[in-house]
Amino acid sequence: MKKIAFILSLFMIIRTDFAQPQSLIQNIEGRKTISLNGDWHIIIDPYETGFFNYRLDEDPNGFFKNVKPKNKSDRVEYDFDQSEILKVPGDWNSQKEKLFLYEGTVWYKKSFDYNKKNKTRLYIYFGAVNYDALVYINGEKLGEHVGGFTPFNFEITDKVKEGENFIVVKVNNKRLRDGVPTVNTDWWNYGGITRDVNLIEVPETFIRDYFIQLAKGSKDNICGWLQLDGNSLSQNVNIKIPEAGIDEAVKTDKNGYTTFKIKSKLTLWSPENPKLYDIVINSSSDTVKDKISFRSIETKGSKIFLNGKEIFLRGISIHEEAPIRSGRAYSIEDAQMLLGWAKELGCNFVRLAHYPHNENMIRQAEQMGILVWSEIPVYWTILWDDEKVFANASNQLNENITRDKNRAPIILWSVGNETPRTDSRTKFMKKLADQAREMDSTRLITAATETHYINPNTIMIDDPLGKSLDVLGCNEYIGWYDGTPAKADTINWKTDYNKPLIFSEFGGGAKYGFHADTTTIWSEEFQANLYKHQINMIKKISFLQGMTPWILMDFRSPKRLLPGIQDYYNRKGLITNKGEMKMAFYVLQDYYNSLKK
Ligand code: GCB
Q: 449 C-alpha vs ligand 1 centroid, how far in Å?
């Protein structure tokens, strides 16, 4: 805990230019909320005219003031209310053709009426804004949030007015060399307010956060903590799980904090039986309801055990991209369709690549019985020696774990993907692995590590980052970037780590409907054949405990330019973005079905 406080304080010191969001409120679904989704007026501002004056100083009369001309001679060169509209949640690229490739600033504005209530505090909560969000209420700055895939909230109790109010958000999705991720990604840089926006009403002292899961390796010991926020911090609190006959009384200390251990007899959550329990937490001033499931996850040697039983993770990788509609996924329906396809494929596991996905994905996975690998966008070539970059990555990890730590289907926190094997990177990522373990001792830590050939037929897994991980992830592209598909038949895998391995990626591109022989690249036959050879190889690796091939669905990428084939899509999907299954889908489905027996 101390280490985390240090890391977070570092973040505060480095970014003193704007106020930081306040500590995250746990479980928005269980709170009293008022949605600010819907139509927002926007101004597309490529030169940031609404932010800087002509000397490039921050303009105290920027667009966030939302002023109107006072008389007919008054010069005001913008007008939100006459400007166009974007839907929230939703990226801007897929809503307006002229914004398809846009990277820069868009101002968002929404007015809302509010009736102030006694003894009630009010927060504004953003599910995610990509990438940099400056938030203002009634012409006053609330603060800034950096990072495109995690939630943040600001308290507005003293800033909200009786009657009409307005929120302005300056959103900038310019890629930055010192960003997390950096400028180089194989996915679309969707900008905008991409997830739900809510007002949250809470009592003066409220249950801000809690952690309720089984202790590592245990099937009957619930362990956790909870944190109150407000003036009356020392309170009696009850944690109830009626169906399991649990009603535990605890008392928070003068800082509003308490830990607890509860002996329990529970039906454990598993893919075969995704059992959820209703939970009620009562303090004398607040009540929160949640649905929580319980399972244990651990490794022994090179094996993974779910609820004490060895498990092979039949997975698939998924980007947060919407089927059919296209653009960023955000809704329950998007999640149901993507995860429904994963189920149809025979999966018990998904890798949500390469950044934290929206909460609907996790909650639907929980209901559908799908285990989850959750990841932060520490991807490829971020700046390992830059303290600010570390603080940013650390903050995104913190927000990801804070939001999802009560969701049992998440078994793995991944601290990054395909990063180069250098000392500074290993130091950087070890610190993230330590942070994840410190925040959540109940789960396993992983990352997609780097491998290398020690002879033409042997690939060695000895990335020094492996020391800090519980499970080794590894992306391999035999048959695509590395030789022909048949090469897989000749390859042996070696490691001195006595740890489980997951192939976090393998695959190849195919254009749906393009049929040819198995040696013709981009054909469905080529991709299906590649999967067959991969499966031959996979069957021989004794320490391989799971796989998440690349990828469930074709997804947009500005790096994929081949006309007629790619057209800005990475075509490694087993399914097209319109829902058509390619031949390789059925190859993998047959294999997964055979493993179920
Ligand atoms: C990878 C990356 C993934 C890419 C994929 C590809 O190794 O992790 O983000 O999209 O390869 O298709 O090349």
A: 13
Choice from 505, 557, 560 to test ligand 1 binding pocket (greatest atom count within 8 A of CB):
505
Among the listed residues 459, 355, 367, the one whose alpha carbon sits nearest the alpha carbon of residue 416 = 355
**391, 10 in Cβ contact below 8 A?**
yes
Confidence at residue 1, expressed as pLDDT on a 0 to 100 scale: 42
The pair of structure tokens assigned to 156 is 């507005």
The segments of the chain whose pLDDT lies below 70 read 1-18
Closest ligand 1 atom to 185 CA: 9
Q: Look at residues 249, 234, 254, 259 and name the one whose alpha carbon lies nearest to residue 281.
A: 249
Q: Name which residue sits closest to atom 13 of ligand 1, judged by CA.
A: 186
Confidence at residue 217, expressed as pLDDT on a 0 to 100 scale = 87
Domains identified in the chain and CATH numbers? 2-203 (2.60.120.260), 206-295 (2.60.40.10), 299-507+541-551+588-595 (3.20.20.80)
> Which residue has a Cα nearest atom 6 of ligand 1?
186
- Separation in Å, CA 276 to CA 199, 243, 270, 372: 27, 10, 10, 16
The rounded Å distance from CA 146 to ligand 1 centre is 24
Q: Is the pTM of this model over 0.85?
A: yes
